[in-house]
Design brief:
Layout lengths: L1 H19 L3 H14 L4 H29 L1
Length: about 70
């Protein structure tokens, strides 16, 4: 149980750092692991959704910019 909590805290910290650095794929991966370990943690759930949302927005921005380049 203690090892599980340590892992969770590590994934959560990694996810927060990755999110702050705009490394969305890494954030999503770490936060998914955190929410798998402790599914009821509200902070992990919120950060996971935020990482997914920001990843989608970043991908959409890249696609829009690529469309402009292709014109």
């Amino acid at each position: 149980q203690k090892h599980r909590l340590t892992q969770f805290q590590s994934f959560l910290a990694t996810g927060k750092s990755a999110l702050a650095a705009k490394q969305y794929a890494n954030a999503v991966k770490a936060l998914a692991s955190a929410t798998t370990l402790v599914p009821d943690d509200k902070e992990a759930q919120q950060l996971f959704r935020q990482a997914q949302s920001e990843q989608r927005e970043a991908e959409e921005t890249v696609h829009r910019e690529q469309d402009l380049v292709d014109l």
